[in-house]
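Consider the following input, taken from an annotated entry for FAD-binding domain-containing protein (Linnemannia exigua).
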Amino acid sequence: MSTGEKPAVLIVGAGLGGIMLGALLEKSNVPYVIFERTTSVKPLGSAMSVGPNVMPIFQQLGIYDEFLTISNPLNDLTYFSEDMKEYKPIDHRPVQGVAGYGYRVVARPMLYGLLLRLVPEQNILYGRRVLNISEDYDKVTVHITKHESYEGDIIVGADGAYSAVRQRMYQQLKAKGELPKTDFEELPFSYTCLLGQTRPLSPEEFPCVDNSYCQFNTILGTNKPYTWVTLSTAQKTLCWMVVHHLDRKASKEATEQRFRTSENSEWGAYPAQTMCNETRDFPIQLNDGMQRTLGELYDRTPAEQISKIMLEEKVFDTWYSGRTVLLGDACHKIHPSSGQGGITAIHDAIALANLLYALPSCTSEEVTKIFEEYRAERFPVVKHAFKFAQLIKQLVAVGIVGAITFHVFTHLPKWLWKVVFASNLRSRPQVGFLPEIKSECTVAPIDSPSFIKAKAVYEETLQRVASV
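Applying the prediction step yields:
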């Protein structure tokens, strides 16, 4: 039974996971504040595929209808060789019957903006770089400067793959001999990625932007260690992404370059422009009969919307310690080939919000207990998503392994694709403190332990209010 005591939550990082957690805590009346080291929102990114595993939560939050207006349906994924030979598309339409919703593609900045509007401005403090974190038995303190600090009951590290919160937590655990060896090894990666989004384009010049569905085309480099993708959006723009498959030498050089920068995974304008210059002649397929290149999209993309990042891959074992807990890329970095990176961060936020809502008291023992439950629920699901992404990324890998994997996946029968979709869409979590969304589908979602726990507290609260 909950005592009604609400924990004060300090969230470090205003990415998708941090903003989603803030939006959910806002709905559950749990006090929180978000610290973001940048001075303003930086809406970078290409597009992301969003499927049935987050649609129910969008309905619960009251943003589902608006989400439909800013996204396009994804019917299939189409692959081409570099000489524009078309391979058999992968049909995504069976998902609707399997899980009650179809897949949709949304420009990442648009989705971010939609979620950001759910968080009051005063709850996000920009230009706040965390310098230190101190913890007592009954509280945690975030130190921003010598003269600015904030106290709370719980701190959530939602600050990305090179999380400052995780690094400080791991340093303390390592000093005590309590950190697994794998957790202080470097984040492995063997890919870099150039991405961006054009300005709104004229349908007369680029007919594909007038489609009522997402044209999702992938080009597999034949004699180049690259794969590149174009996606049309509901805003009449084209999102694009170029993945560079690194060999060991190139990966080592990329690692050294990362340590020479202060932005960790993002390398800044000059390296991004260099990669643009190197790839601008790569051909693209927009299904309009024109011979086009990536350079046409680069020239129509604002410079500030182009970024170069690394695609790290790792699931950390240690997700919490004391009153500190990690979320999203801070505890698991998943290759984007399966479209699960942002989704797993959102799912983390849902599970953690459920447990914080149901937290019976803010004692150290109760906080540790919910952190244990949070990791126990999310870790197996994240590991499954990680392994699935490892498999899917072979679709665009270079060499014989990629060719074999690609052939197998593009020739799976429809019934087997339904099995694949079903296995990855059983996890469709909801929050237990809002009215539950029911949907008609052939594969029922799994009720997560955190949902069940929060729902019990929510129903108990409703009964108590009704009896007064």
